[in-house]
Amino acid sequence: MTVTRIGEAVRRKEDHRFITGKGQYTDDIFRPRQAHAYFLRSPHAHARIRSIDTAEALAMPGVVAILTGKELAEDKLGDLICGWMIHDIHGQPMKMGSHPALAKEKVRYVGDHVAVVIAEQLDQAKDAAAAIAVDYDVLPAVAELAGATDSATLVHDEIPGNLAFEWHLGDAAATERAFAEARHVTTLEIVNNRLIPNAMEPRAAIGEYDSGNDAYTLWTTSQNPHVARLVLSAFVGIAPEHKLRVIAPDVGGGFGSKIFIYAEETVCAWASKRVGRPVKWTGDRSEAFLSDAHGRDHITTAELAMDERGKILGLRVKTRANMGAYLSTFASSIPTYLYAPLLSGQYDIPAIHAAVEAVYTTTAPVDAYRGAGRPEATFVIERLMEVAARELGVDPADFRKRNFVRKFPHQTPVIMAYDTGDYRASLDKAMKIADVKGFGRRRRHSARQGKLRGLGYSCYIEACGIAPSQAVGSLGAGVGLWESAEVRVNPTGNVEILTGSHSHGQGHETTFAQLVSDRLGIPIEQVTVVHGDTDKVQFGMGTYGSRSGAVGMSAIVKALDKVEAKAKKIASHLLEASVADIEFRDGQFTVAGTDRSIDFASVALNAYVAHKFPTSEIEPGLKEGAFYDPVNFTFPAGTHICEVEIDPETGKTTIASWTAVDDFGVVINPMIVEGQVHGGIAQGVGQALMEAASYDRDGQLVTGSFMDYAMPRAEDLPSFQMGFTQTRCPSNPLGIKGCGEAGAIAAPPAVINAITDALGTEAVPMPATPSTVWEVMRAFGPAARAAE
Amino acid sequence: MFAFTYHRPSSVRRAAALVASAEDGKLLAGGQTLLPTLKLRLAAPGDLVDLGAVPDLSGISLAGRTLTIGAMTRHAEVAASPVVRAALPALADLAAVIGDPQVRNRGTLGGSVANNDPSADYPAACLGLGATIITNQRRIEADDFFLGLFETALEPGEIITRIAFPAVKKAAYVKFRHPASRFAMVGVFAAKRTSDIRVAVTGASQNGVFRWQEAEQALRRRFAGKTLDGMSPPADDMVSDIHGSGEYRAHLVGVIARRAVEAAADA
Amino acid sequence: MPIVTMTVNGRTASADIDPRTLLVQFLRENLMLTGTHVGCDTSQCGACTVHLDGDAVKSCTVLALQAEGCAVTTIEGLGAPGLLHPMQEAFREHHGLQCGFCTPGMIMAAVDIVHRHGNELSETLIRHELDGNICRCTGYHNIVKAVAEGARAMAPAMGAGGTGSTGLRTAAE
User: Fold this and answer.
1) Are residues B137 and B157 in the same domain?
2) A452 lies in the same domain as A572
3) What is the pLDDT of residue A302?
4) How much is the average pLDDT of B28-56?
5) Which candidate in C21, C42, C43, C102 is best for mutational testing of the B interface (most B CBs within 10 A)?
6) Do B260 and B193 belong together in one domain?
7) A262, A276, A319, A545 - which has most CB atoms within 10 Å?
8) Contacts (Cβ under 8 Å, ≥6 apart) of A134
9) Which H/E stretch holds residue A644?
């Protein structure tokens, strides 16, 4: 067993339990006497509930209880909340529609929660749910984003125009002037398609009430169990924080969708006291489609102003964002502060103005999905860059190079201060790996096979490591976005790291342990990472926004600093030297300039034995905690290049090759980082080629299962060509930038830029399914153009 | 699932009696369509009659130029069978692209044909080869068997026991998969046996599997892909939904049929 | 209620069950073999893949009663006590998993691919044969690598690390 260093592709510690089937996900937990919950959901997009008759259902076999909004009101439970307050263009707070965990007067989307049936067996609960008679007064749906603000139908009776808020960022007047001076303006109409996250593990929850201690335990599929506890305590009012334990055990993927506090876990926790038994709910995939928070769903008009030399003067963006029926936990921040501040991309743009309308519709709530606002921004700027270059007759790579930010720090006109980067380096390296020079030859080869070939760039930037607490507080966040860590050194010298981050695929149990191994000089096998249990771990903010490395690990570094400082003091007594003379390297405390040393484990043991140092000066034990608040966002950036081949007869697009060159600053474990990029690309390709959540005019979800919602499979993707460049992040101790969302942010414009290059028309919507590409070719292709 | 009574008879006769006497009985073969349907509570049969324990319903045999496959033969067996590969390679190719490997390990020929899902693959082979569907009661020509979406000539209590396919060399199946479900968006089985030319299309039509007679007529003049250049069936007859317009599907039928004929002509 | 009896991971299992019990429910809820997961309800994601009489099937699309008298192998029954199966080892070695939820089904499907196609698998074939399994984390890149390497390691008489026809290796952890 040896020390593992930062930068090593060490294999994952957590894998053994997963590859042997010993992972423990929420649905794998069986509590004694547990009953099963099944939610009766609204079949209508919009309806007033006249009455709910549960009499017949209550009498059915196995039924324990049936609860509705009436019981919720009896117990005075609060609404689910949105934790980010946006002030609109008039300085007024956003309009938040009431969001009870079980509907009270109205249902507002298909899948909205009407009642919960709790029964001995799940099938019995389902049987009983079918026997509940709900008298609905069906109202018109507001299913389409485009017309929602003009609709005579109001999703929330008290919110006029179905408008949650109108918001803007940037200098409108300066942007107007830039456009007035422009020699050329490129304009695009963009629809960023609505997506369904589809983590492979469906959401699940078990609520259990302990009457002896008047305390609750909630096992749930959460990316941030402490935040869930805070919301369920402080806002919903299920129990005081210290009487509610939230455990997020192994979680099978999140991608944002498991950040939020949903009706189902709220009801399971609450109902467990009412029925006096553990209440378990495991969503099936159909429920996930209906009620997981969806992602994206923007309609945007974007304009880019340039001078005669192709230098960008200004960017003007108008976006309408679909919020769905309710404002989900962080929904309001997605099309605002996680979106508009990224519109500057990698470019030096003197003036930017973004105007956003956040709109209610009778569809599932929309919130963060991998990238959350940043993919939407990147799609806008990277499509504009490609189209502008084509309109100007300039090579798209050269056009980007001409406009790259080159001096750091760089203050954009939209909040962000980029700290460091080398965008040219990533682009150059990507072009080399992708063999852009050989593209012409490959295109001719494809043409000989009757295929169309195209190449597309995406030079993305994202703001990660969210986020400095004061900064986000000033922008409306209801919480700080620091992270916590505790380092517990045990008497035998092994170490437990308690982190407020949560791992649901990202490999924290390995990378965090790798950091500790490197720093303390102990084998990685002697480090355990503990997370996901509010009874074990100090308050923490959880995992999202590619923050666990940059923020979560920085907190561990701070705690390790304290551990080392204290251990040095103890070592100085053991070695009978001055603490100033103690050096710590490779797990050994050494008196400088001598061969007198003692290893880490011995110091740990002595810390607890406490015989050999004055406990009046040094407390016994070796355990330190830290809270780390970042000083800035981090700015991962890079270039992805996609090459596609299209069969013009069927419209089918094949990804011929993919090159990703990313600058994530310091990389702790390149194997894990590359894996994160692979997965992100797959989701981005999914958005570009296959995935779309679609509601019909009546607000019925047409893509309600994997039969209609196309998920990328192995055959839909190539192997990826990967590369890194590195500029160290100056704002955190490890120099990390974050990597979790990069692929999903970079990929969609790369794909669409490649397809539009192949087809010779810009009018390609996402997803570019075979039928869509064929329709585009029919309308705008060579034959159509010749006919004009 | 809604509750049901499960039966596991050991003979076709007993199975037929059970399903006939049940108020709303359903036969269970491989279950790859039926079980998902039941799980989503889209059907509520009172009785399920599992054919899994009935002997002699599976197996592959070649007699002369007739390939006979038992109704309970799994797709994977057909795909991997050296007999099928030698006598009727197009059928092995078709079986190899049904669903996915796990589905092919459970799904059966008889189940697929009896269900007549408008996007299923086997109905195209039956129709495209002029197969004979043999039941516990009679023999039914494929041309008389498929009656529309999920509709067949089977009578209540009638059970497919095997299907006889003519061993045609000049035959091919080409499938263009639905991006989400992986069923056929368009699947075309083209075959030429002396003067009998057949082009059977699955996935595309609002009425389920069909023979594209216009194409067949054209191919009688010359059995080559080129013959179908520019041809497509009427778009009005095709499915039109979020995954593709009727025009797209009609166009796709033309393209995929041409590719199937090219492959069949080269076989 | 009817009684079902089958062999699961080499041991006889029998229970009195509701006829609508799916094989996956029987494994998870009756036998507490929770390594087999449920990721969808339309028979597509493959997280529930187990071997039924040696063939990979989706245990969410088989009634427990249909498995009467059959031999079932789940992820827990792959390899031997204290020994990882080469395919399990390959998934770890090549980072073929992230959240781990699809992984048991992926590994069971991968072993089935090797049974049908042998030890030398091309990338194209692997991608085609993984059609019945969805992963949302990995983009499949490392899964494909893992399956190819795991297939090689399953070959009888492999050199370093192999222990002959069982293809089992000592667990490294």
Assistant:
1) yes
2) no
3) 98
4) 95
5) C43
6) yes
7) A545
8) A40, A49, A51, A52, A53, A114, A115
9) strand A637-647
Mutate to test the interface with C, among A22, A34, A200, A206 (most CBs of C within 10 A): A200
Which of A42-46, A522-526, A781-785 is the least confident region?
A781-785
Ramachandran area for residue B206 (φ above 0: left; ψ -120 to 50: alpha; else beta): alpha
CATH of the domain at B62: 3.30.465.10
- The CATH number of the domain holding residue A545 is 3.30.365.10
C35 to chain A: which residues are within 8 Å by CB? Answer: 20-23
User: Is B248 within 8 Å of A707 when comparing Cβ atoms?
Assistant: no
A6: in domain: no
Closest-CA residue in chain C for B3?
A: C20
Give the tokens for residue A756: 């539009």
**Which subunits have 3 or more CB–CB pairs within 8 Å of chain A?**
B, C
Q: What CATH number should be reported for the domain holding residue A129? A: 3.90.1170.50
Residues A599 and A656 in one domain: no
Task: Calculate mean pLDDT across residues C69-98.
Answer: 96
Distance CA A775, CA B252 (A): 12
**Number of compact structural domains in chain C:** 2
DSSP character string of A515-582: HHHHHHT--GGGEEEE-SBTTTS-----S-TT-IIIIIIHHHHHHHHHHHHHHHHHHHHHTTS-GGGE
Domain's final residue, options C44, C77, C110? C77
pLDDT in tens, A594-612: 999 999 999 999 999 999 9
CA distance A668 to A670: 6
Same domain, A563 and A658: no
> Which is higher by pLDDT, A785 or A161?
A161
Q: How many domains does chain A have?
A: 3
- What is the per-residue pLDDT for A545? 86
**Mean per-residue pLDDT for A18-33?**
98
Query: Is B103's CB within 8 Å of C43's CB?
Result: yes
Of A252, A671, A717, the CB nearest to C140: A717
pLDDT tens figures, A197-248: 999 999 999 999 999 999 999 999 999 999 999 999 999 999 999 999 999 9
Asked if A576 and A655 sit in the same domain, the reply is no
Instruction: Write out the residue range of the structural domain in which residue A615 sits.
Output: 482-628
Whether C142 sits inside 8 A of A200 (CB atoms) is no
Q: What integer pLDDT is reported at residue A687 of this predicted model?
A: 98
B180 has a chain A CB within 8 A of its CB: yes
Q: What is the ipTM of this complex?
A: 0.96
> Does residue A396 form part of some domain?
yes
Report the alpha-carbon distance of residue A85 to residue A67 in Å, rounded: 31
A247-274 residue pLDDT tens: 999 999 999 999 999 999 999 999 999 9
The answer to whether residue C166 scores a pLDDT higher than 70 is no
Spell out which residues of chain B touch residue A707, defining contact as CB-CB under 8 Å. 180-181
Tokens of C59: 């245990």
Residue A554 CA to residue A631 CA, distance in Å, equals 11
Average pLDDT in chain A = 96
Q: Is residue A658 part of a domain?
A: yes
C79 band by pLDDT with thresholds 50, 70 and 90 = confident
Q: Which residues of C touch B101 (CB under 8 A)?
A: 56, 109, 112-113, 116, 129, 131-132
- How far apart (Å, rounded) are the C-alpha atoms in residues A614 and B37? 73
Residue from B74, B93, B102 whose CB has the most chain C CBs within 10 Å, to mutate: B102
Cross-chain CB nearest to B243 (options A286, A711, A771): A771
Query: Confidence band (pLDDT; 50, 70, 90) for B195?
Result: confident
| Structural domain boundaries enclosing B11 | 5-53
| Count: domains in chain B | 2
A438, β-bridge pairs: none
Shared domain for B147 and B36, answered yes or no, is no
